[in-house]
Amino acid sequence: MRYQTDKALFKEKDTALPDPDEASQFLAEHPEMEFIDLLLIDMNGIVRGKRVEKDKLPKAYEHGIALPISIYGMNIKGNPVEETGLGLEIGESDAICFPVAGSLTTQPWQKRPIAQLLLEMYEDPQTPFFGDPRMILRRLVRQIKDKGLTPVSAFELEFYLIDSQESGQAPLPPISPVTGRRPENTQVYSLDDLDEYSEFLTGIIDAAREQGLPADTIVAESAPGQFEINLTHTNDPLAACDYALLLKRVIKQVAHEHELDTTFMAKPYADQAGNGMHVHISLVDEEGNNVFQPPENGEMTDTLRWALGGMLALMPDYMAILCPNINSYRRFSPDFYVPNAATWGVENRTTALRIPGDAPEATRIEHRVAGADANPYLMMSALLASVLYGIENKIEPSEPIVGNAYDKEIEFDALPTNLRDALRVLSQSEPMREYLGTDFVDVFVTCKEKELEEFEQHITGLEYDWYLHAF
To answer: What is the CA radius of gyration of the chain?
Structure first.
């Protein structure tokens, strides 16, 4: 296939070139800086880019920085998938990347003074590149704002602390710096478990604050070495995703400072809970009013119902975005509070969509399906696309679930339970092609299908145990 940006998808409001004065002001405030890390987020949510000397920073703002288009046709291992048409077929050509305004900041974990700067890819200064997940989200946000609505959102991230391990081997929980032992269990919300790793966790909050990331809550989860960090809400979905992505980077780097390792792998342990990534979403009107807030009679607003309806109706279609890897689907078990059906309920953590029981003015939808291995920009894009779909088509939701959703016999479209089925549903989804862009969907599906093909050609140790001498 040949890449082609459909310029009809984008409008002038979808571009946001930065003010070059931002660079000169930053360098004046930080004369000690030596290098700048230029960060571009690929389809998998992996940080790529290059490191440049600080005198190249003004050029990046004024003229952009060239990076290979093939970055958006890479598999999880960082190898270009030639079937996407983004590699050798177009001569491994570059596109121009411009800074994300306001993202230039220090990196407190670096031993030398090195800053970092987020980038976005453009086909030309007026045309965002179709394969850049941040650009896809920028377009979806504009479409919602064209309706006089602004999304308010916040992410919750789960991760494991682990010891470094041999390639291909299961990880181990880290040795506690307090007890000198590996934890065998944990108590959810335990303050003792937080105390054991207090220096590491405090280091995360300190580094996040220095980078302007609004991380505000840390809790111990229900497995050894597992924690959750919450971000405060913002009325800028792009910023919310920036915060989530950059917080992952902070967690990894601070862990290395403490001679620890981390993983956001969806299911690193077969017998423990997986890592999820939840997001809370509401919509405010042009006066700042929450359009999900129920009136005095307590009934749901039309907008909330339709948003729920769209999210539920398209959930099978965007499952491959929420769970983009083979390992992603190992999370799904009722024993570990991972919803496996397109359900919703009020103050119900067994459902895919939860309406928290807070004050009416804080009414929102918590989406509880995605793994921590999902790309935040693509996840948010898919959710906003489904909200738009629900509002534009006035989709009514199913009945809410009361009680344990796993025990209910419910008639609805089942969610895909493996990557192959999820990719097939996404590939055939006309709404997702319309909202995310048909070329992007094709590239995403192609990359993931090639990963699946390579995975399935690998013979596992379990197969030798079961079959080598069985026949």
So the answer is: 22
Percent of the chain predicted with pLDDT > 70: 92
Instruction: Give me the amino acid identity at 414.
Output: A
Q: pLDDT tens digits for 11-29?
A: 666 677 889 999 999 999 9
Q: Are 106 and 351 in contact (CB under 8 A)?
A: no
CA distance 39 to 139: 21
Residue 224: predicted pLDDT? 84
Cα–Cα distance for residue pair 248/46, rounded to 1 Å:
10
pTM of whole model > 0.90? yes
Please, which residues have CB within 8 angstroms of residue 366's CB and are 6 or more apart in sequence?
A: 278, 279, 280, 353, 354, 355, 356
> pLDDT band for position 180 (50/70/90)?
confident
* 3-class secondary structure, 356: coil
CB 69 within 8 A of CB 152: no
- What SS3 state is found at 400? coil
Q: What is the pLDDT of residues 347-404, one digit of tens each?
A: 999 899 999 988 899 999 999 999 999 999 999 999 999 999 999 999 999 999 998 8
Q: What residues are paired with 53 via a beta bridge?
A: 35
pLDDT digits (tens, 9 = 90+) for 229-241: 999 999 999 999 9
Beta bridge partners of 151: 283
Query: Helical H runs in 398-460?
Result: 419-427, 430-436, 438-456
Strand, helix or coil for residue 460? coil
Q: Is 453 helix (H, G, I), strand (E, B) or coil?
A: helix
The answer to whether 282 and 235 are in contact (CB under 8 A) is no
Partners of 38 in the beta sheet? 50, 117
The answer to whether the beta carbons of residues 204 and 211 sit under 8 Å apart is no
Measured CA to CA, the distance from residue 316 to residue 327 in angstroms comes to: 18
Instruction: In whole angstroms, give the CA distance from residue 114 to residue 106.
Output: 6
pLDDT, position 250: 97
pLDDT at 442 over 70: yes
Which is nearest to 157 in space by CA: 250, 78, 59?
250
The secondary structure of 125-193 as a DSSP string is: TTEE-TT-HHHHHHHHHHHHHTTT-EEEEEEEEEEEEEB---TTSPPBPPPPTTTSS--S---TT-HHH
**DSSP code of residue 457:** T
Q: Are the CB atoms for 159 and 262 separated by under 8 Å? A: yes
b/e 35-54 (16+ beta carbons within 10 angstroms → b): bbbbbbbbbbbebbbeebeb
CA-to-CA distance for 148 and 182, rounded, in angstroms? 52
Residue with tokens 């980038």: 119
